[in-house]
Design brief:
Blueprint lengths: L1 H10 L5 E4 L5 H10 L4 E4 L3 H8 L10 H9 L3 E4 L10 E4 L14 H13 L4 E5 L7 H11 L9 E5 L18 E5 L2 H12 L5 E4 L2 H32 L3 H8 L23 H11 L5 H11 L1 H15 L8 E5 L14 H11 L3 E5 L5 E2 L13 E2 L5 H6 L2 E4 L8 H7 L2 E4 L6 H6 L3 E4 L1
Parallel strand pairs: 1-2, 1-4, 2-3, 4-5, 5-6, 7-8, 9-10, 9-13, 13-14, 14-15
Antiparallel strand pairs: 6-7, 11-12
Helix pairs in contact: 1-7, 5-6, 8-10, 8-11, 12-13
The structure holds nicotinamide-adenine-dinucleotide.
Nicotinamide-adenine-dinucleotide binds next to helix 5.
């Protein structure tokens, strides 16, 4: 039976693992398999990434170049743009992007492209696992029929499962090996083989009854966050209207040892997951005549936060008899969250667009992001690219307003408070002591 064959190859570490898509998810996964003694081949469409990996030069913060270089040297890890090497892989894991179309509908074209490459070379004895976040049904409604068109049969010839990725880029405590992994196969044999594969690199594997359950579980996790952040953002705007300190309210509520979990407001949600994934769920629900209202509401509240931040800037300047038009506004941090370099869907981009539309002279400092271009898929507006400015005393004191969009740890907030005239703190980055001693006027979200 194909299941036994694959399981024994995995147990003996003779299985070659292929990972398609070597980004934030795929590269750490590839490195994890190689670190556990598996021969691991990464497949990329971007030849520059493949070249850098083979030179032991990591472009992902969670994978160090020294570890990568050693794995390449030990002949355990390699990257390629030649998909013919898929033939040599016993387990193939798909980690390609799953963005949204402009209409906010799922764009599974990257999954289809990867699956097409597999299909051309599919042969008996292969286990395929999809990790890209997607709507429930993708694995068995889209991938299975494609693979069965080859004439090969599920369970007899190949196995197919879904296992959602949960990586949290920049998180020092939780990385691939200690984040429990949910696995759901299209068949029981597929679940068993995929669970066995992941148990080689992850401490806890949680098997579920189907690929659909695993797909839905991932969307529940991220929708849970989107909805609760939406609630926190609504609370922040409500508190602003009532002139109450939101952060103090949350701190107080969080002392309750049961039945409450703190979520925090911010300038808006970003990254490749939280702003996008709930749409995959609501889209699929709509196909079945179901309207998921929480998702729609959270999206509405969260997507209005950049507008609210710009309002805070305008209000702050107004109090000093200044207009937004012509004001120099410095954003501190443009990545979508602290201590990482990812600007995908970052609210900073929308804030910059809006400030520029009002005539503000916008600049930014971010120790992780050297440049932002406004012509790629992740931004709404257009305009000149911006480069991170060095955080000199002059840059700080010349700004009419500073907006803390991302609370990166390495910023000297004490110096910011000493030199800036007006600060909009959207992350509660400035603690009580800093606020007390600050020369700047501070407006918190
Ligand atoms: N980044 C996260 O924190 C995170 C967390 C959990 C889940 N996910 C999910 O994991 C998936 C991948 O996300 P990511 O952040 O790693 O994306 P990414 O953009 O960082 O990486 C994807 C990589 O796939 C490559 N690629 C695209 N099409 C390809 C193809 N046909 N063949 C080979 N390579 C191809 C791209 O060049 C890119 O390097 C998405 O579905 C995402 O929702 C991401």
């Amino acid at each position: 039976m194909v299941k036994e064959q694959i399981i024994s190859l995995i147990t003996e570490k003779r299985a070659r693992v292929g990972v398609i898509g070597l980004g934030y998810v795929g590269l750490p996964l590839l490195a994890e398999f190689a670190s556990h003694g598996f021969k691991a081949t990464g497949f990329e469409v971007d030849s520059k990434k493949a070249t850098r990996i083979n030179a032991g030069d990591s472009y992902i913060g969670d994978v160090s170049s020294s570890v990568l270089a050693q794995l390449v040297k030990d002949n355990l890890l390699q990257a390629t743009t030649d998909f013919d090497h898929l033939q040599d892989c016993h387990a193939i894991i798909i980690c390609v992007p799953t963005p949204l179309r402009k209409t906010k509908e799922p764009d599974v074209s990257y999954i289809l492209a990867a699956a097409e490459e597999i299909k051309k070379r599919l042969h008996r004895g292969q286990l395929i696992v999809l990790e890209s976040t997607t709507y429930p049904g993708t694995t068995d409604e889209v991938l299975l029929p494609m693979f069965e068109e080859t004439g090969l049969k599920l369970d007899e010839d190949f196995l197919l499962a879904f296992s959602p990725e949960r990586v949290d880029p920049g998180n020092k405590h939780f990385q691939t090996h200690n984040i429990p992994k949910v696995v759901g196969g299209v068949t029981d044999d597929s679940t068993e083989a995929a669970a066995h594969l992941y148990s080689q690199i992850v401490k806890d594997v949680h098997a579920v009854s189907s690929a659909r359950v695993a797909e839905a579980a991932k969307l529940l996790e991220n929708t849970f966050r989107a909805v609760n952040i939406g609630m926190a953002n609504e609370m922040a705007r409500l508190c602003y209207a009532l002139n109450i300190d939101t952060w103090e309210v949350i701190r107080a509520a969080a002392t309750k040892p049961f039945g409450f979990m703190p979520f925090y407001p911010g300038p808006g949600i970003g990254g490749h997951c939280i702003p996008l994934d709930p749409h995959y769920l609501s889209w699929k629900a709509r196909q079945h005549g179901f309207d998921s209202r929480f998702i729609g509401l959270a999206e509405e509240v969260n997507s209005r936060m950049p507008e609210h931040v710009v309002q805070l800037v305008a209000d702050g300047l107004n109090d000093e008899r200044k207009a937004l038009n012509g004001a120099r506004v410095l954003l501190l941090g443009v990545a979508y969250k602290k201590n990482i370099d990812d600007v995908r869907e970052s609210p900073a981009l929308s804030i910059i667009d809006r400030l520029r539309a009002k005539g503000a002279d916008v600049c930014y400092h971010d120790p992780f992001v050297k440049e932002i271009r406004f012509d790629d898929a992740h931004t709404e507006g257009g305009g000149e690219p911006l480069a991170s400015e060095p955080l000199t005393d002059e840059v700080l004191s010349r700004a009419d307003c500073i907006v803390i969009v991302t609370d990166h740890s390495e910023i000297d907030y004490g110096r910011v408070c000493r030199l800036a005239p007006l600060i909009i703190d959207t992350r509660n980055a400035l603690n009580g002591e800093l606020r007390r001693d600050s020369a700047a006027r501070i407006i918190r979200l």
